[in-house]
Amino acid sequence: MSRYESPYTPAPLCGPARASFYTGRSMYSHGSVWNFVPLSIREQLLGDLLRDHGLSVALDGKIHHRPDELAMARFGIGLDTVPGHNLMNGGFEIIDRYEGHANPGPKHPYVAYLREQGYDSDDPWEDFVISGEGPDGELLSGWYARNCHLPARVSEEHSETAYTTDVGIKFIREQGDNPWFLHLSYIKPHWPYIAPAPYHDMYGVEDCLPVVRSAEELKNAHPVFKAFTDHVDSRTFHRDDVLDIVRPVYMGLVKQLDDHLGRVFQALEEAGRIDDTLILFTSDHHDYLGDHWLDEKELYHEPSTRIPLIVYDPDAAADATRGTTDSRLVEGIDFVPTFLEEVGAPVPDYLLEGRSLVPSIRGESGGAWRDIAVSEMDYTFRDARVVLSQDPRKCRGYMARGERFKYILWEGFPPQLFDLQEDPDELHDLGTDTDYATERAELHEHLFTWMRNRKLTVTLPREDIVLVRETILPRAGIHIGEW
Amino acid sequence: MSRYESPYTPAPLCGPARASFYTGRSMYSHGSVWNFVPLSIREQLLGDLLRDHGLSVALDGKIHHRPDELAMARFGIGLDTVPGHNLMNGGFEIIDRYEGHANPGPKHPYVAYLREQGYDSDDPWEDFVISGEGPDGELLSGWYARNCHLPARVSEEHSETAYTTDVGIKFIREQGDNPWFLHLSYIKPHWPYIAPAPYHDMYGVEDCLPVVRSAEELKNAHPVFKAFTDHVDSRTFHRDDVLDIVRPVYMGLVKQLDDHLGRVFQALEEAGRIDDTLILFTSDHHDYLGDHWLDEKELYHEPSTRIPLIVYDPDAAADATRGTTDSRLVEGIDFVPTFLEEVGAPVPDYLLEGRSLVPSIRGESGGAWRDIAVSEMDYTFRDARVVLSQDPRKCRGYMARGERFKYILWEGFPPQLFDLQEDPDELHDLGTDTDYATERAELHEHLFTWMRNRKLTVTLPREDIVLVRETILPRAGIHIGEW
What we know:
2 copies of one chain form a homodimer. With about 475 residues, chain A is an alpha/beta fold. The first copy, chain A, has a single domain, classed as Alkaline Phosphatase, subunit A, CATH 3.40.720. Chain A is about 35% helix and about 15% strand. Chain A contains 17 helices and 13 strands. In chain A, a hairpin with a 5-residue loop joins strand 12 and strand 13. In chain A, helix 8 packs parallel to helix 11. In chain A, about 50% of the residues are buried.
């Protein structure tokens, strides 16, 4: 088991990050730049690549995938066809697709499950899962921070995290000795920030990390950063009472997840699969929860962009790294090539922009790794665009995180720069400091090189180049420029 | 009628340039980086965009389009369906698809036409269209430069240029007063460089422009340039006898084209359509024909990259520019938005990377135009890659042509720079001259900006942003970060 210290999300936002997790390609390349932006029909997904290798990828939980329905209509690809099903579901075989960040709707299996357990309501998710109760028995919605200290009305064993775990364990047990791949994708921790007992008050403010922010940050603040701190939800997190309520509950939700993962590992042991199952634990992004005067994610401070990553590989080849940490710059686009290499599937190098972590997991030197980790964002859909009167085509920022410095290129605004060695809390923006022009220029150039290395030709496997040179050209009977 | 002095092809190679002409997008974005690289299924083509507006785009001639057959198979899109037909044919309605740079094959209508005209042969294209005759009546193939001074065995009226013109005129006549759009796409001038009488000897060496090259160019030559000058076909054009044969014949082929375009214009007049038909004359690239010790195209000297562009707009609004020239930097990606604006069709701004020429045609100030014209190339498939032992992923060059300087960024090699004011023949490469570091840095940065402005999100029309913000988000019943 290795824990990685510097893994970065390809984009600090659910949809784009997951599109990168599932394609092995950067947001720039797959083009799904915000949650409601469909993923182009041209993208090939982990599920597609593994299915071609005879292994389907089961989904239990959230994917935040919006299909390219315009293209499906253009080409007459029906929802009832196998390709249509795969496009609609991000290439996954659906065990249980549960998005959870919005009301799952009356037809979702989780809602039926809740009714079976006796939660009698037209909308048990709204009334039990995300609501608490006031002193007179009135419902108090977990959508609102003021209610998040209350225990959710659902009992812990029927909560979202427990349900998703149950579905996953059932799947594992049913597989027996067959090979399988499961995307166990929990919605929590996530808003609505309300937890079932006993997790709702398991932690207090004194257990939480201090809030990382300073009054100085807001003076001469970068325009995009400033606009995000003014978003309605960020302003809510400027309040101490909100921090004092939400941060302990968030820790409770993390602890609940931890406990249920213990159940998953136990099920793997009972099924005799703990010794032949690779486990990769990660997240699509983190959450500011008030750090830097912000809520949610999308910007590039460490609390938003740096994600957890723990890899457990039972293979003896990985013994060398068991219990160690690895500080290399990892990107979320590295997961697909890692999975493909682990199961021995062909790696479509012409599509994948990340690097397999297998050498790192096995303690082998893989040579030079990468100069920068890149993360991307697009705030076209956000209030910040309106406030800044920014052209929708220019609402882009790119993070280039080097060994010591983190550079952020903003279209139409000055850059940002943080010295992670001297200022690990990123409270001092050096983006316009004349003493750091060299550091900025270097990371700026790295970013241009990175962009030129994107893989935008997705129609021709590289091995076909030889085929074209050696067979198609001569066969065409063409004699160019011969005397 | 305006003639443009500085129009650049998006890529000095047939397939990628045409993919840009038909999509309105740069090679970088559409990803079809060489002739045999399929155009991704995600691309929407001029024919698709105009068809949605009720106007089909007829093809008479060459398109050099390779469809994304892997994706078609993946999604089960049959060749016998309308979407399948459009994908196979680059979005065009086929009047006559004639690629001509290779043997058209026994089933092509042109071959049947030749037989009807009495060209009795198993392969009339090979035996008549591209062959001449020796003193003893033996066939001498036009594939070989040594034979290109001979008249082709086909008579002029049955030659490729005449045939394509006949098909086009027939189409125009049949349309009557209906609106139509025709892509009249001649193969010639093009190898095999053999012309029918009288065009085969209409010009002599003394009529040709002098060959632009110097011995100095080959000293300390840029590695990619050097490798291309060593290609077999380039070496053929190092020979004076080849230049003396091919260049006059090439001029004959241009003159033949000119004469047949006269027939097209006359047909338009006779059909009463010369006053309501926009005509845009251009080419996908030029041909070195020995300039700079090179054959063919692909590199970035003016003889390869700068294309002809003449626009005739019969509208009175265009009277202001009739007979004038326009020196702005035009790119081949500007044609699609021009056509769409001219016919009043919706312009999908989220896809198109070029700018409509309509303001220029009408003499209106369109404000600032563009800083650089960009052209792109990928030599992965060429011998140069092998000779230079270059990683297939690094075989890329980008041209940024500014007002005065032309900068070329090469992956893995030093850049090139030409001062078009002091050195219009591009004989002095300033790519490593320390006096020009500022000019290079400026164009380098322009190129990065250009790359960041590519349009890689092709699944969501921009107007849908408002829709998402105002309808989808609130309707989802989500309350993020409220107290």
